[in-house]
Amino acid sequence: MVNNTDSIYPKLIPIEYPVAGEKPSVFKIGVVSLTDAQTQWMNIADDAVWGSYVPRMEWAGNNSELIVQHLNRRQNESNLILCNAASGAVQTIYTEKDSAWIDIVANWDQDYTSGGWDWLNGGKEFLWPAEKDGWRHLYRVSRDGKKKP
To answer: Looking at CB atoms within 10 Å, which of 1, 10, 74, 106 has the fewest?
Structure first.
């Protein structure tokens, strides 16, 4: 990873990718307030033994929530989590499980401009690709977690 914010010269920071059977690096997601420089950490649970991954996150179509894709170590369960930027509270709104593994490549647009989430209906829903039936399809998922594909 390149750190080009701490000095005038960029520095390389090695990021270890876990080998088979090893726990991934620990992660923390925080939002820093511009008014008082305080960090609000998101309360995303991590498996203490096996760890987990966050392959994708972005603002959830507004400036008060983040949406995070959270995978278990085996990469066969994916949870989409809404995180309140002010409180750190989290809510899982969509879960996908597979007996083998879940492909996290979410881009269906060539330039990946949406980062995996295309918000619809004024930000109430988004498109999400899944291979739940063995084929990749796009599903509409509601932001409140009540309407599932």
So the answer is: 1
Number of domains forming the structure of the chain: 1
| Rounded-to-integer distance, Cα 139 and Cα 141, Å | 6
In-domain check, residue 3: no
75 in a domain, yes or no? yes
How many whole angstroms from its chain centre is CA 146?
19
Q: Quick: pLDDT tens for 15-32.
A: 777 777 788 888 999 999
**Residue 71 domain flag:** yes
Q: Which long-range contacts (CB under 8 A, 24 or more apart) does 125-134 make?
A: 126/61, 126/67, 128/80, 128/94, 130/96, 131/98, 131/102, 131/103, 132/96, 132/98
User: Domain containing 109: what range?
Assistant: 29-142
**14 within domain boundaries:** no
Quickly count: other Cβ atoms within 10 Å of residue 93's Cβ.
20
The DSSP bridge pattern shows strands 65-72 and 52-59 to be antiparallel
Q: Output 62-65 pairs: Cβ under 8 A, ≥24 positions apart.
A: 62/123
